[in-house]
User: What shape does this take?
Amino acid sequence: MLSKSIKSILLVTLLVIAIFTVTTFAAGNPDINDTVELKNGDKISGHVLTDSFTVTSPYSIVTLERDKISEIAIMPEGYNHDIVTLNEAGILEGTIDEASITIKNEKGEKITLKKEECKKIVFKPIK
Assistant: This one.
């Protein structure tokens, strides 16, 4: 029977190893952090190559660099706007003007998707 102190040491050691493993894999390939979720349920992970997105609303036209954006929800037909969540706690509603989005997947292949194929784009956090 192991004593409580040995169990605690083992638990802490396993926790440190788990945290190290997760951070090593996350930092090991910085290009594999963006995700495009398609309307059919598929997800593509990689690096979104589209550098900026233009949002048109009834009040203005705004072009945002991708590093300012946390997430884009592309609304289905029938809605007259998409939803852009900003890194600095803001939301814009309007239509994303880009007709397509290009992502470089884990294999290094560039995939261009039509906007209407996409449901959501989640960008890696900027540090």
The chain has one helix and ten strands. Residues 4-28 form the longest helix (25 residues). The radius of gyration is 20 Å.
